[in-house]
Amino acid sequence: MTRTHTKSSGNVFADLGFAPAEVQELTAKSVLIEAIADTIAGRELTQATAAKLCRTDQPTLSKVLRGRMESVTIDRLAAWLTALGHSVEIRVGPARARPGRLVAARAR
After folding, report:
1. Number of folded domains in the chain?
2. Ramachandran category for residue 77: left, alpha or beta (phi over 0 → left; psi -120 to 50 → alpha)
3. pLDDT tens per residue across span 26-62
4. How far, in Å, are 33, 50, 51 from residue 65 at the CA level?
5. Which pTM does this prediction carry?
6. Residue 50 maps to a domain
7. Which H or E run contains 39?
């Protein structure tokens, strides 16, 4: 049996064939969700307690933490992070060398 491998582009959403705009949105959501999950774990919160802090219900939070991104917007994720004690910054600037893009990164 011959196995073939395709080298990753470095972005799973791009590799799965999503359109460039969707790749940017899904990547941004992933960064925000990872920050939420890390905060919940770091503060040793239960999902129920975290959901109350975020003013949502535990099933919705659980679904998002498991990767169901279609049910949540970037602004809602940002609101959850703020409720969990984080600062969320959105910057707008001129596009360089290519059309506008959405970039999400975590401060370390």
Report:
1. 1
2. alpha
3. 999 999 999 999 999 999 999 999 999 999 999 999 9
4. 6, 12, 11
5. 0.81
6. yes
7. helix 20-42
CATH code of residue 50: 1.10.260
Beta strands in the chain (DSSP E): none
Helix (H, G, I), strand (E, B) or coil at 72: coil
> Token match 């169901």: residue?
68
Rounded Cα gap, residues 12 and 103, in angstroms: 15
Residue positions counted in the chain: 108
Residues 80-107: tens digit of each pLDDT: 999 999 998 887 777 676 666 666 777 7
What domain range is 34 assigned to?
26-83
Residue 43 falls within a domain, yes or no?
yes
**Residue 73 belongs to a domain:** yes
Task: Determine, yes or no, domain membership for 3.
Answer: no
Cite the DSSP H helix spans in 46-105. Answer: 47-53, 58-65, 74-83
